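Troubleshooting log. The previous run stalled partway through. Resubmitting the same two chains, unchanged.
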Amino acid sequence: MQPTSLSTNLQQVFISLGDRSYPISIGSGLLANPATFDGLASAHTALIVSNLTVAPLYAALLQESLKKHYQRVLLVNLPDGEVHKDWLNLQLIFDALLENGCDRKTVLFALGGGVVGDMTGFAAACYMRGVPFVQVPTTLLAQVDSSVGGKTAINHPLGKNMVGAFYQPQRVICDLDVLTTLPPRELSAGLAEIIKYGPIADMGFLDWIEANIDALLRRDRAALAHAVRRSCEIKAAVVGEDEREAGLRAILNFGHTFGHAIESGLGYGEWLHGEGVGCGMVMAARLSQALGLVDANFVVRLRTLIGRAGLPVVGPILSTSDNAGRYLDLMRVDKKAEAGEIKFVVIDLPGRASVRSAPDAMVRSVIDACCGQAGSL
Amino acid sequence: MQPTSLSTNLQQVFISLGDRSYPISIGSGLLANPATFDGLASAHTALIVSNLTVAPLYAALLQESLKKHYQRVLLVNLPDGEVHKDWLNLQLIFDALLENGCDRKTVLFALGGGVVGDMTGFAAACYMRGVPFVQVPTTLLAQVDSSVGGKTAINHPLGKNMVGAFYQPQRVICDLDVLTTLPPRELSAGLAEIIKYGPIADMGFLDWIEANIDALLRRDRAALAHAVRRSCEIKAAVVGEDEREAGLRAILNFGHTFGHAIESGLGYGEWLHGEGVGCGMVMAARLSQALGLVDANFVVRLRTLIGRAGLPVVGPILSTSDNAGRYLDLMRVDKKAEAGEIKFVVIDLPGRASVRSAPDAMVRSVIDACCGQAGSL
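Second attempt completed without errors. Output:
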């Protein structure tokens, strides 16, 4: 990768959140170009947080660019994987900051996928009660999902993302070049969140994804650029209206209530987050149908696209004695639940979503219809 | 303690922070009166966080009042003391919340001193990315200091309050009755923060404290009410102008740079925070004198009052080989330090403070002049 002029291919999405606003840059050759990092608040030290998978590929490139801006560029690597998104590994970031005498102007750079982004963001939110950070997402899922919205968190043994903060980055750098090294399963997981934006907000985008799913799967740079930009735009519009998830923002969790149950029930790391969401969207669409909101054709259309994207469309059996009961138990500890009542994001009509509850019996029948032995990877 | 009408003796200070504004109630009989908790956001569950010292005295009283407002009132006790203000004990709060299926409307009540307040506030800031909490400070120090300003944190092995958040409570309840059971050392520690507001902001208040120090030491309810109210007012005015400690707010740390070094150098818990601040104020006043800002009379006046309040006025020897060097090393990791340069809050003239740096040699001579074998409790 050679440094390229920023002007040739750079696209920007601006996240408008008052004094917490920030831009997302999307394009090729961004990491290798020091100009990508012009205009950030000046500081003596930058700390890159990455993991043992990503750092060997891209940390040197980022370090080189950052050395133009910071006297000292440190690196700390976390173990790779959702199962490590816990306090113990968060401490590695605080340890690195304190052992190196980092002050409250130090800028953190999250170089990795959603786990690195969530942990770096939460560490930045908490270190000395808040230091600046920049997201450099290296997975498609992180580029279209966790890079927008300022949700940061770690997991607790009793629940996913239970401990965290709303904390906005200074900037997000989505370099499409880094997606060339992404494993196919991770690419599909990212496509799950991209597909999500269709049914909840923009059926025209769903049409476009259906027409371009093969280009996306072969990592066509132009197709990826459009998919990332449009996903970020939609998420930005929703988050801009509801930064702290008081209402509207919850629709971004379409597929996540079922998806989290799958992730948690199988043990974090067994299925990728995007795989849980992909399958969870099929289940949530089916629940929308059971509620009389959408027809069977819509469910089939969505399930077909999710399958074409390389994602699972059949839920795993989490309990051989009472599978639906196990799903229900897991969903009752979801953050969206209130006093034990599960809240589902459902499709009201194609392109519009809302949050509703549903009778346990109906949810059970949806789970029974959507799960089976095929529900494994 | 019998429930009393709120109207008879209640004083209120309003902390004005936009949509994060909240009132501080100051008076007698507040805990025992369910009306104290009228008007909080409705929720199914309240969780009282306390410690093994305070809970036996006041938890039942608070639980009884809260039962009028919440279907379920839970209690979790932390171990008592600054040395326990760490992640391990913070987990006790998250464990209690998750084991009881608490949702994001659950209200946390911090019943205890600064440690309980800091930990409960930080847990509230992080649990599901933010749940409401109420401060019920049971020490004088917590009533006049940590109850205003929204600073929450835990300690890291390499530094005090290094991991935390700015997070405002819904309400603060300062019941003066609970101060009757406060050990004398804790009372003096609280007086340190009260005295602090004089030199940094209001010399008239310092005059009042000098005239009423004996009444405060014998826990005269009216004197305490005035001291708590005026302290909260001054802190509120400062915090209202600078919620996130970009500038002015730092003056509230008068005495804290030296004080933190003492606390950290002796090991947290050896000296109380207020004791470190009391002695630290003597050192910071002396540094102000060395900088030519105040005269020797001012330093003597402040040291005399701090001594009368039952606080240490001579710093401990932290190293027999290079005591001043040890202080300097400890102060360089202070959150206020920038790129290794220590920032001191100094008195510009009586009643006004600012943040400055000072030559190492000058700081060394101040430390040498202020520390000695008398610097132990």
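Takeaways: Residues 221-241 of chain B form the longest helix (21 residues). Residues 1-8 of chain B have pLDDT under 50 and may be disordered.
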